[in-house]
Design brief:
By secondary structure, the protein is an alpha/beta fold. A six-stranded mixed β-sheet has the order 7-4-6-5-9-8, with no helix packed on it. Helix 1 packs parallel to helix 6 and helix 3 packs parallel to helix 6.
Protein backbone atom coordinates (compact mmCIF):
# COMPACT_ATOMS: atom_id res chain seq x y z
CA UNK A 1 0.00 0.00 0.00
CA UNK A 2 1.11 3.55 -0.67
CA UNK A 3 -0.04 6.68 1.19
CA UNK A 4 -2.84 8.73 -0.43
CA UNK A 5 -0.56 11.73 -0.95
CA UNK A 6 1.95 9.58 -2.80
CA UNK A 7 -0.83 8.06 -4.91
CA UNK A 8 -2.04 11.54 -5.88
CA UNK A 9 1.50 12.60 -6.78
CA UNK A 10 1.83 9.59 -9.08
CA UNK A 11 -1.53 10.27 -10.73
CA UNK A 12 -0.71 13.90 -11.47
CA UNK A 13 2.82 13.05 -12.61
CA UNK A 14 1.48 10.63 -15.24
CA UNK A 15 -1.57 12.62 -16.31
CA UNK A 16 -1.09 14.67 -19.49
CA UNK A 17 -2.41 18.19 -19.99
CA UNK A 18 -4.59 18.04 -23.09
CA UNK A 19 -4.01 20.09 -26.21
CA UNK A 20 -5.57 23.48 -26.89
CA UNK A 21 -8.67 23.79 -29.07
CA UNK A 22 -10.69 26.79 -30.20
CA UNK A 23 -14.37 26.74 -29.24
CA UNK A 24 -17.35 29.11 -29.31
CA UNK A 25 -17.35 31.32 -26.23
CA UNK A 26 -20.35 29.70 -24.54
CA UNK A 27 -18.79 26.25 -24.96
CA UNK A 28 -15.82 27.37 -22.85
CA UNK A 29 -17.83 27.53 -19.61
CA UNK A 30 -16.12 25.42 -16.96
CA UNK A 31 -12.95 25.00 -19.01
CA UNK A 32 -9.53 26.63 -18.62
CA UNK A 33 -8.12 29.17 -21.03
CA UNK A 34 -5.13 27.86 -22.96
CA UNK A 35 -3.73 31.33 -23.65
CA UNK A 36 -3.90 34.81 -22.15
CA UNK A 37 -6.57 37.15 -23.51
CA UNK A 38 -5.92 40.87 -24.00
CA UNK A 39 -8.48 43.62 -24.29
CA UNK A 40 -9.05 45.11 -27.74
CA UNK A 41 -10.22 48.40 -26.23
CA UNK A 42 -10.34 50.51 -23.10
CA UNK A 43 -12.98 49.37 -20.60
CA UNK A 44 -15.10 51.35 -20.11
CA UNK A 45 -14.61 52.68 -23.66
CA UNK A 46 -15.74 56.15 -22.58
CA UNK A 47 -16.55 58.11 -19.43
CA UNK A 48 -19.98 56.81 -18.46
CA UNK A 49 -22.56 57.52 -15.83
CA UNK A 50 -22.80 55.13 -12.91
CA UNK A 51 -26.26 56.45 -11.97
CA UNK A 52 -29.53 57.71 -13.35
CA UNK A 53 -29.46 61.44 -12.67
CA UNK A 54 -27.99 64.69 -14.03
CA UNK A 55 -24.54 65.37 -15.48
CA UNK A 56 -23.37 68.66 -13.98
CA UNK A 57 -20.32 70.85 -13.33
CA UNK A 58 -19.26 70.28 -9.73
CA UNK A 59 -18.69 73.97 -9.25
CA UNK A 60 -22.34 74.71 -10.08
CA UNK A 61 -23.56 72.53 -7.22
CA UNK A 62 -20.95 73.37 -4.59
CA UNK A 63 -23.81 74.99 -2.70
CA UNK A 64 -27.28 73.47 -2.76
CA UNK A 65 -30.08 73.77 -3.56
CA UNK A 66 -29.06 74.89 -7.05
CA UNK A 67 -31.32 75.29 -10.09
CA UNK A 68 -29.87 74.28 -13.46
CA UNK A 69 -31.10 74.32 -17.06
CA UNK A 70 -31.45 70.88 -18.70
CA UNK A 71 -30.03 71.10 -22.23
CA UNK A 72 -30.04 67.46 -23.30
CA UNK A 73 -31.34 64.00 -22.38
CA UNK A 74 -28.93 61.09 -22.66
CA UNK A 75 -30.26 57.52 -22.47
CA UNK A 76 -27.74 54.67 -22.66
CA UNK A 77 -26.40 54.23 -26.18
CA UNK A 78 -26.82 57.89 -27.20
CA UNK A 79 -23.73 60.07 -27.65
CA UNK A 80 -23.84 63.65 -26.27
CA UNK A 81 -24.11 66.48 -28.78
CA UNK A 82 -23.74 69.43 -26.42
CA UNK A 83 -21.13 70.58 -23.93
CA UNK A 84 -22.15 71.37 -20.37
CA UNK A 85 -21.54 75.04 -19.65
CA UNK A 86 -22.09 77.08 -16.46
CA UNK A 87 -25.58 76.73 -15.03
CA UNK A 88 -26.44 73.88 -17.38
CA UNK A 89 -26.78 70.09 -17.07
CA UNK A 90 -27.92 67.02 -18.97
CA UNK A 91 -30.37 64.38 -17.82
CA UNK A 92 -28.46 61.11 -18.04
CA UNK A 93 -29.14 57.41 -17.57
CA UNK A 94 -26.86 54.68 -16.19
CA UNK A 95 -24.28 53.67 -18.79
CA UNK A 96 -24.69 56.73 -21.00
CA UNK A 97 -21.59 58.73 -22.06
CA UNK A 98 -20.88 61.74 -19.85
CA UNK A 99 -20.94 64.95 -21.93
CA UNK A 100 -17.94 67.25 -22.17
CA UNK A 101 -17.82 69.88 -19.46
CA UNK A 102 -19.52 67.68 -16.83
CA UNK A 103 -17.43 66.24 -14.03
CA UNK A 104 -20.15 64.91 -11.74
CA UNK A 105 -23.43 63.00 -11.96
CA UNK A 106 -25.99 63.82 -9.26
CA UNK A 107 -28.30 60.87 -8.73
CA UNK A 108 -31.95 61.49 -9.47
CA UNK A 109 -32.92 60.87 -5.83
CA UNK A 110 -31.13 64.12 -4.92
CA UNK A 111 -33.11 66.24 -7.37
CA UNK A 112 -36.60 67.61 -8.02
CA UNK A 113 -38.26 69.38 -10.95
CA UNK A 114 -37.82 73.20 -10.94
CA UNK A 115 -40.17 74.18 -13.75
CA UNK A 116 -40.10 73.70 -17.53
CA UNK A 117 -36.61 72.60 -18.68
CA UNK A 118 -35.03 73.05 -15.27
CA UNK A 119 -34.02 70.84 -12.34
CA UNK A 120 -33.22 71.61 -8.71
CA UNK A 121 -30.17 69.90 -7.25
CA UNK A 122 -30.98 69.28 -3.58
CA UNK A 123 -27.66 67.71 -2.57
CA UNK A 124 -24.32 66.92 -4.18
CA UNK A 125 -21.57 64.77 -2.71
CA UNK A 126 -18.10 65.77 -3.96
CA UNK A 127 -16.65 62.39 -2.93
CA UNK A 128 -19.20 60.56 -5.10
CA UNK A 129 -18.79 61.80 -8.66
CA UNK A 130 -20.73 58.75 -10.01
CA UNK A 131 -18.65 58.58 -13.20
CA UNK A 132 -16.87 55.45 -14.45
CA UNK A 133 -13.77 56.79 -16.22
CA UNK A 134 -12.58 55.49 -19.56
CA UNK A 135 -10.09 52.65 -19.13
CA UNK A 136 -10.40 52.47 -15.35
CA UNK A 137 -11.17 48.73 -15.53
CA UNK A 138 -8.58 47.80 -18.18
CA UNK A 139 -6.56 49.55 -20.86
CA UNK A 140 -6.43 48.45 -24.48
CA UNK A 141 -3.79 45.76 -24.99
CA UNK A 142 -3.60 44.75 -21.34
CA UNK A 143 -4.25 41.12 -20.35
CA UNK A 144 -7.72 40.62 -18.89
CA UNK A 145 -7.47 36.86 -18.24
CA UNK A 146 -4.38 34.69 -17.90
CA UNK A 147 -3.88 31.21 -19.32
CA UNK A 148 -5.29 28.62 -16.91
CA UNK A 149 -8.14 30.87 -15.78
CA UNK A 150 -11.42 28.99 -15.36
CA UNK A 151 -14.22 30.37 -17.54
CA UNK A 152 -17.33 31.11 -15.48
CA UNK A 153 -20.27 33.43 -16.09
CA UNK A 154 -18.30 36.59 -15.22
CA UNK A 155 -15.45 35.53 -17.50
CA UNK A 156 -17.88 34.93 -20.37
CA UNK A 157 -19.18 38.46 -19.94
CA UNK A 158 -15.65 39.86 -19.81
CA UNK A 159 -14.54 37.93 -22.89
CA UNK A 160 -17.59 39.15 -24.77
CA UNK A 161 -16.74 42.71 -23.70
CA UNK A 162 -13.33 42.46 -25.34
CA UNK A 163 -14.72 41.06 -28.57
CA UNK A 164 -14.02 37.35 -28.16
CA UNK A 165 -16.75 35.12 -29.50
CA UNK A 166 -14.29 32.21 -29.72
CA UNK A 167 -11.52 31.28 -27.28
CA UNK A 168 -8.79 28.67 -26.95
CA UNK A 169 -9.19 26.25 -24.07
CA UNK A 170 -7.56 22.99 -23.05
CA UNK A 171 -9.67 20.22 -24.53
CA UNK A 172 -12.06 18.50 -22.18
CA UNK A 173 -11.20 14.82 -21.78
CA UNK A 174 -13.55 12.16 -23.08
CA UNK A 175 -14.29 9.72 -20.26
CA UNK A 176 -15.69 6.19 -20.42
CA UNK A 177 -17.30 4.47 -17.42
CA UNK A 178 -17.68 0.72 -17.05
CA UNK A 179 -19.34 -1.16 -14.21
CA UNK A 180 -18.38 -4.75 -13.42
CA UNK A 181 -19.93 -7.57 -11.42
CA UNK A 182 -22.13 -10.62 -11.89
CA UNK A 183 -24.41 -9.30 -9.16
CA UNK A 184 -25.40 -6.10 -10.97
CA UNK A 185 -28.75 -5.57 -12.66
CA UNK A 186 -30.07 -2.48 -14.52
CA UNK A 187 -31.65 0.28 -12.45
CA UNK A 188 -35.02 -0.46 -14.05
CA UNK A 189 -34.96 -4.08 -12.85
CA UNK A 190 -35.98 -5.35 -9.43
CA UNK A 191 -32.97 -7.30 -8.07
CA UNK A 192 -33.43 -10.97 -7.31
CA UNK A 193 -31.71 -12.84 -4.46
CA UNK A 194 -28.04 -11.88 -4.17
CA UNK A 195 -28.33 -9.18 -6.84
CA UNK A 196 -28.16 -5.37 -6.60
CA UNK A 197 -28.82 -2.50 -8.95
CA UNK A 198 -25.86 -0.90 -10.72
CA UNK A 199 -25.36 2.45 -9.01
CA UNK A 200 -21.62 3.02 -9.37
CA UNK A 201 -21.51 3.69 -13.10
CA UNK A 202 -24.33 6.19 -12.70
CA UNK A 203 -22.68 8.02 -9.81
CA UNK A 204 -19.39 8.11 -11.71
CA UNK A 205 -21.13 9.59 -14.74
CA UNK A 206 -22.62 12.22 -12.44
CA UNK A 207 -19.16 13.00 -11.06
CA UNK A 208 -17.84 13.46 -14.59
CA UNK A 209 -20.72 15.73 -15.51
CA UNK A 210 -20.02 17.84 -12.41
CA UNK A 211 -16.37 18.01 -13.47
CA UNK A 212 -17.49 19.44 -16.82
CA UNK A 213 -16.38 16.61 -19.11
CA UNK A 214 -18.00 14.40 -21.70
CA UNK A 215 -18.75 10.91 -20.44
CA UNK A 216 -19.91 7.67 -22.04
CA UNK A 217 -21.37 4.77 -20.08
CA UNK A 218 -20.16 1.43 -21.44
CA UNK A 219 -22.63 -0.66 -19.45
CA UNK A 220 -21.75 -3.53 -17.13
CA UNK A 221 -19.24 -6.33 -17.69
CA UNK A 222 -19.53 -9.76 -16.11
CA UNK A 223 -16.72 -11.10 -13.91
CA UNK A 224 -15.33 -13.08 -16.82
CA UNK A 225 -12.16 -12.42 -18.81
CA UNK A 226 -13.83 -12.53 -22.21
CA UNK A 227 -16.57 -10.05 -21.31
CA UNK A 228 -14.15 -7.74 -19.51
CA UNK A 229 -11.80 -7.70 -22.50
CA UNK A 230 -14.70 -7.06 -24.87
CA UNK A 231 -15.82 -3.99 -22.89
CA UNK A 232 -12.51 -2.65 -21.57
CA UNK A 233 -10.93 -2.66 -25.04
CA UNK A 234 -13.22 0.04 -26.48
CA UNK A 235 -12.90 2.00 -23.23
CA UNK A 236 -9.16 2.32 -23.79
CA UNK A 237 -9.87 4.52 -26.82
CA UNK A 238 -11.00 7.30 -24.47
CA UNK A 239 -8.78 9.81 -22.68
CA UNK A 240 -9.90 8.39 -19.32
CA UNK A 241 -11.35 4.97 -18.51
CA UNK A 242 -13.04 4.38 -15.16
CA UNK A 243 -13.78 0.77 -14.26
CA UNK A 244 -15.76 0.16 -11.09
CA UNK A 245 -15.37 -3.14 -9.25
CA UNK A 246 -13.21 -6.20 -9.83
CA UNK A 247 -10.03 -4.63 -8.41
CA UNK A 248 -9.69 -6.29 -5.00
CA UNK A 249 -7.98 -9.59 -4.11
CA UNK A 250 -10.80 -12.06 -4.71
CA UNK A 251 -10.91 -14.86 -7.27
CA UNK A 252 -13.29 -12.82 -9.44
CA UNK A 253 -11.34 -9.55 -9.25
CA UNK A 254 -9.93 -9.74 -12.75
CA UNK A 255 -9.68 -6.10 -13.81
CA UNK A 256 -5.94 -5.56 -13.09
CA UNK A 257 -5.17 -8.73 -15.07
CA UNK A 258 -7.15 -7.40 -18.04
CA UNK A 259 -5.35 -4.05 -17.83
CA UNK A 260 -2.05 -5.96 -18.06
CA UNK A 261 -3.32 -7.91 -21.06
CA UNK A 262 -3.97 -4.65 -22.91
CA UNK A 263 -0.51 -3.35 -22.08
CA UNK A 264 -1.48 -0.45 -19.86
CA UNK A 265 1.23 0.23 -17.31
CA UNK A 266 0.16 -0.15 -13.69
CA UNK A 267 1.48 2.39 -11.20
CA UNK A 268 -0.29 1.29 -8.00
CA UNK A 269 -3.00 -1.16 -6.97
CA UNK A 270 -3.70 -0.33 -3.32
CA UNK A 271 -3.75 2.88 -1.30
CA UNK A 272 -3.50 3.19 2.47
CA UNK A 273 -6.92 4.81 2.80
CA UNK A 274 -10.32 3.96 4.18
CA UNK A 275 -12.54 3.56 2.26
CA UNK A 276 -10.99 2.99 -1.16
CA UNK A 277 -7.98 0.75 -0.47
CA UNK A 278 -8.25 -1.28 -3.73
CA UNK A 279 -7.74 1.63 -6.12
CA UNK A 280 -5.78 0.93 -9.30
CA UNK A 281 -4.07 3.50 -11.51
CA UNK A 282 -2.55 2.70 -14.89
CA UNK A 283 -1.57 4.55 -18.04
CA UNK A 284 -1.56 3.77 -21.72
CA UNK A 285 -0.65 5.83 -24.75
CA UNK A 286 -1.92 9.36 -23.93
CA UNK A 287 -4.64 7.96 -21.69
CA UNK A 288 -5.16 7.19 -18.03
CA UNK A 289 -7.04 4.29 -16.49
CA UNK A 290 -8.53 3.87 -13.04
CA UNK A 291 -9.80 0.70 -11.45
CA UNK A 292 -12.08 1.92 -8.67
CA UNK A 293 -13.48 -0.08 -5.75
CA UNK A 294 -16.86 -1.76 -6.06
CA UNK A 295 -18.37 -0.37 -2.88
CA UNK A 296 -20.31 2.78 -3.81
CA UNK A 297 -18.86 5.14 -1.20
CA UNK A 298 -15.33 3.86 -1.88
CA UNK A 299 -15.81 4.63 -5.58
CA UNK A 300 -16.90 8.19 -4.86
CA UNK A 301 -14.07 8.83 -2.40
CA UNK A 302 -11.47 7.50 -4.83
CA UNK A 303 -12.93 9.62 -7.61
CA UNK A 304 -12.68 12.76 -5.47
CA UNK A 305 -9.12 12.04 -4.35
CA UNK A 306 -7.60 10.94 -7.66
CA UNK A 307 -9.85 11.14 -10.72
CA UNK A 308 -11.14 14.66 -10.13
CA UNK A 309 -7.61 16.17 -9.84
CA UNK A 310 -6.49 14.20 -12.91
CA UNK A 311 -9.38 15.57 -14.97
CA UNK A 312 -8.60 19.08 -13.76
CA UNK A 313 -4.96 18.71 -14.82
CA UNK A 314 -6.03 17.48 -18.24
CA UNK A 315 -8.20 20.57 -18.60
CA UNK A 316 -5.33 22.91 -17.77
CA UNK A 317 -6.12 23.89 -14.19
CA UNK A 318 -3.01 25.46 -12.65
CA UNK A 319 -3.99 23.98 -9.26
CA UNK A 320 -5.59 20.59 -10.01
CA UNK A 321 -5.63 19.37 -6.40
CA UNK A 322 -6.44 22.22 -3.98
CA UNK A 323 -5.44 21.33 -0.41
CA UNK A 324 -7.97 20.56 2.34
CA UNK A 325 -9.21 23.31 4.61
CA UNK A 326 -8.55 23.24 8.34
CA UNK A 327 -11.64 23.10 10.52
CA UNK A 328 -12.85 22.42 14.04
CA UNK A 329 -14.60 19.14 14.83
CA UNK A 330 -18.08 19.57 16.24
CA UNK A 331 -18.20 16.06 17.73
CA UNK A 332 -15.75 13.45 19.00
CA UNK A 333 -14.45 10.74 16.64
CA UNK A 334 -12.82 7.37 17.20
CA UNK A 335 -11.03 6.02 14.13
CA UNK A 336 -9.89 2.39 14.14
CA UNK A 337 -7.52 0.51 11.85
CA UNK A 338 -4.22 1.45 10.23
CA UNK A 339 -5.29 3.55 7.24
CA UNK A 340 -6.02 7.23 6.68
CA UNK A 341 -9.78 7.64 6.89
CA UNK A 342 -11.85 9.86 4.59
CA UNK A 343 -15.23 10.06 6.26
CA UNK A 344 -18.42 11.93 5.34
CA UNK A 345 -18.87 15.32 6.96
CA UNK A 346 -20.75 18.57 6.68
CA UNK A 347 -18.55 21.64 6.28
CA UNK A 348 -19.75 25.11 7.20
CA UNK A 349 -18.11 28.48 7.69
CA UNK A 350 -19.01 30.08 10.99
CA UNK A 351 -17.52 32.83 13.17
CA UNK A 352 -14.56 33.28 10.85
CA UNK A 353 -13.59 29.60 10.70
CA UNK A 354 -14.65 26.22 9.36
CA UNK A 355 -16.76 23.79 11.37
CA UNK A 356 -16.52 20.09 10.48
CA UNK A 357 -19.52 18.03 11.51
CA UNK A 358 -18.96 14.25 11.14
CA UNK A 359 -21.89 12.40 9.59
CA UNK A 360 -22.71 8.94 10.99
CA UNK A 361 -21.96 6.21 8.47
CA UNK A 362 -22.33 2.45 8.34
CA UNK A 363 -19.35 2.01 6.05
CA UNK A 364 -18.33 2.00 2.41
CA UNK A 365 -21.72 0.79 1.18
CA UNK A 366 -23.72 3.49 2.99
CA UNK A 367 -24.78 5.81 0.16
CA UNK A 368 -27.65 7.09 2.29
CA UNK A 369 -25.25 8.59 4.84
CA UNK A 370 -22.80 9.74 2.20
CA UNK A 371 -25.51 11.60 0.31
CA UNK A 372 -25.80 13.97 3.30
CA UNK A 373 -22.12 14.93 3.10
CA UNK A 374 -20.53 17.88 1.34
CA UNK A 375 -16.98 17.16 2.56
CA UNK A 376 -14.60 14.44 3.68
CA UNK A 377 -12.98 14.78 7.09
CA UNK A 378 -9.44 13.35 6.91
CA UNK A 379 -8.26 11.59 10.05
CA UNK A 380 -5.56 9.12 10.97
CA UNK A 381 -6.40 6.25 13.35
CA UNK A 382 -6.95 7.53 16.86
CA UNK A 383 -9.35 9.39 19.13
CA UNK A 384 -10.38 12.98 18.43
CA UNK A 385 -12.23 15.24 20.83
CA UNK A 386 -14.79 17.83 19.83
CA UNK A 387 -12.89 21.04 19.14
CA UNK A 388 -9.90 19.31 17.60
CA UNK A 389 -8.49 20.82 14.40
CA UNK A 390 -8.76 18.49 11.43
CA UNK A 391 -8.41 18.78 7.62
CA UNK A 392 -11.53 18.51 5.51
CA UNK A 393 -11.81 18.16 1.74
CA UNK A 394 -14.85 19.69 0.01
CA UNK A 395 -16.51 17.00 -2.08
CA UNK A 396 -17.44 19.09 -5.16
CA UNK A 397 -19.19 16.03 -6.64
Amino acid sequence: MIPPDEALRIVLEHTPRLEAVEVPLIDAVGACLAEPVASDMDLPPFDKSAMDGYAVRAGDVAETPADLTVIEELPAGVAPTKEIGPGRCAKIMTGAPVPAGADMVVMVEDTEPAGEGRVRILAAHPDSRNICRRGEDIREGRTVLEAGHVVRAAEVGLLASVGRDRVRIHRRPHVAVLGTGNELVPVTETPGPGRIRDSNSWSLMACCRRAGVQVKRLGVAKDAEADLKEKIGPGLQYDVLLVSGGVSMGDWDLVPKIFDAFGVAGHFTTVRMKPGKPTVFATGENRIVFGLPGNPVSTLVAFRLFVWPAIRKMMGHPDPAPPPVEGTLTAAMNVRGNRTAYLPAHLRHEDGGWRVEPIPTRGSADLVGFARADALVIVEPGTYKAGATVPALPLQL
